[in-house]
């Protein structure tokens, strides 16, 4: 079975941060990374329509990173007949932060957050310098309204019931040093889908950026176990 791996990005929404991860994947695997509009505040429902309009034909494996975990669950449920697999990478199906973040999000500006705090919660000392720079540059492209909307969305997300309705194979990738998403939040995923495959990687929150080769290897092994073949890589 040939598939296309659809990559849905984290809070930055640029899809630029997938660069090293994509380079670690085999050239025979079809990949489509979808970036979100940097200047249009869109909730999960609007983003779902935006992503749906860009999907290629054929079978799909959705990979949702961080902010896009809930969105990837929504897409897997919406396109159940075409979804060959779902990958949740360093993400959540219930809010990773308290509900008060919804109120905070209305006044939140990422432009006043010190870079060291972004690094503290997303990266570690082993993160390549180019990836650190890429993260800050990607975040800088966003308008405050877009970031505020995305913070509000993740603070109100609860996709447990939707995840429980999915039947496609599920892979959960989680960093052992994730400071944003506590390991206890994984239970919400495994409670909803006891058949999930869980792979813990020695990484902080941004697994695909900090351990791109290990994440790619885990994904490819899982795809092989699913019986998926690979087709030509896309842009």
Describe the structure.
40% of the residues lie in helices and 16% in strands. It is built from eleven helices and seven strands.
Spatial separation of the terminal alpha carbons: 21 Å
Proportion of β residues? 15-25%
What is the approximate shape? globular
Residue stretches low in confidence (pLDDT < 50, at least 5 long) are: 108-114, 231-235
Quick structural summary:
This protein has 235 residues and is α/β, with parallel strands linked by helices. It has helices at 19-24, 44-52, 69-78, 100-105, 115-122, 129-140, 144-155, 160-165, 186-192, 207-210, 212-226, and strands spanning 2-8, 30-33, 60-65, 83-89, 170-175, 197-201, 229-230.
